[in-house]
Amino acid sequence: MKLLVTGGAGFIGSAVVRTAIADGREIINVDKLTYASNLKSISSVAHNPLYQFEKADICSAGTMVKLLAKHRPDAIMHLAAESHVDRSIDRPSKFIQTNIVGTYQLLEAALNYFNTLDGEKRENFRFHHVSTDEVFGSLSMHDPAFTPETRYAPRSPYSASKAASDHLALSWFHTYGFPVVLSNCSNNYGPYQFPEKLIPLIVISALNKRPLPVYGKGENVRDWLHVDDHAVALLKVLDYGKLGESYLIGGDAERSNLDVVRAICSLMDEAQGFGPHEELITFVTDRPGHDHRYAIDASKIRNQLGWRPSVGFEEGLTQTVQWYLANQAWWQPLVKERYSGERMGLGTSKRTV
Predict the structure, then answer these.
(1) For helices 257-272 and 198-207, what crossing angle results, to 10°?
(2) Looking at the annotation, which residues are catalytic?
(3) What is the pLDDT of residues 169-217, one digit of tens each?
(4) Which of 3.90.1150.180, 3.40.1010.10, 3.40.50.720, 3.10.580.10 is the CATH number of 2-189+225-252?
């Protein structure tokens, strides 16, 4: 399979690229290289003959048409997106442009390309749109987990833009017969995640003995999914998912933000031989519209496609903390060059976790 991946230099996209190449697939990585993209995340495969990189913006319809005609992929996996809730609150226009307009432009280019195909190549072609569980809104502690039938109820500019892109992708299936599959994932964690996200932010802050900022009382609950497990699941959905349907991908690991931060503190105590790092925890004013809980019912992908998470949260968190401690050369330039200490949450940022 020749697979075109948008956003393949991002956190989840780079995991997909590494996993797909290890699986023997040919990859065309299309990435604009925004602040959250990093070609160092895929340096291990950069010289692999199965890998090609194209710097391009999905919002450029003409560019997408040319790239599809040039590479003639067997499938597209669309991961390129603005994805940070705090950024969407501060500057929603970028999320509208990339997540909605960009998805539309890509769908148009992909449909035009699809209509040039015939025979087996047309029959086997797929467009996998990758999304988030945040489109479903907020759960209380006693609500059942999200399922593919859960009503959409986004509550932030980010989740609203992703909800719109989900609807666009599925409308292309129903209206034009375009072969779309959709997936929605829970919170990802693991190596190569941009330092503004919760786990790397707390590790880096603890390493520098700075305050560990936690919104509100830290009671917000997320289901945690290791990024490598997610990459395997995405390829399963691409290969075997039913067209026009959605698959929810979760890690079966619900934890409150405060519990995650405390677990990181314990690991940092052990790694650095001093502590307790919990003394650095600082509660800050809650995020506007902060969703209380996300939870995934992944029974559909488990029963239909035979996928289940292989990395337990405690094991995965330990490995992730160790990776950030051992790979400071990867994240230090991101902190120095692309963020001020305050905006990173390493000082007194109003928006942090």
Answers:
(1) 40
(2) 133-134, 158
(3) 999 999 999 999 999 999 999 999 999 899 999 999 999 999 999 999 9
(4) 3.40.50.720
